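Folds abound. A case:
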Amino acid sequence: MLKLLIVDDEPLAHQVISHLCLAHSDIEIAGHCYSAAEALTILARQRVDVLVLDIQMPVLTGLDMLRVMQKKPAVILCSAYQQYALDGFDLDVADYLLKPVSAERFSLALQKIRRRLLQPQQPTSIVLKVERAQRRFLLTDICCFEAYGNYVKVWQGQQMVLVNSTLKQVYDDVAAAGFVQVHKSFLVNKQHVISQDCTAIQLSNQRQIKVGSTYRAQLTRLL
């Protein structure tokens, strides 16, 4: 059963989505929120698999809400305005529906989500906050992540970008893509490891990283 949360400041939109959900026996409505702030509170308290989200809402828009979320369920954006579609897909939404939402398009959106949840794919990128903007990084380009106080350094070859995150938050997003923690301050991309011994590894950017004693068991999974 997939738990679905409806977030829209218009009561009619809630009625429409609730009615469309009746045709899907595997969908359970987890709640109704009329603002982004209310939705963030619900998401912090309970599991939600699918978020049906309006864009233009007072105080905090749907897009703004997605930008501040570290962990997101599958998202279906619903809007009367087509011009926000690109922004939505940059934030990795499952689908973008124009109002009024038809039963057919809603069903197709749920099919996309079912495929995504039943056959999870290895992540290929990560979106991180750089100063005040969200930026997408291709994981294949990243040699390692380095903790730096309340920030993380993203190393792409010899280039470094400082992002607003913690190493744990990053690890939760990239572990499935072949990143391994070898030190309390380092996550390394296995594809960029070119040599290793019992105490250190060398990356493709020629950087050597000391392996922490509590992480040495990870070494067997690098090369």
In short: The radius of gyration is 20 Å. Residues 103-118 form the longest helix (16 residues). Helices lie at 11-21, 36-45, 62-68, 85-90, 103-118, 167-174. The longest strand covers residues 27-33.
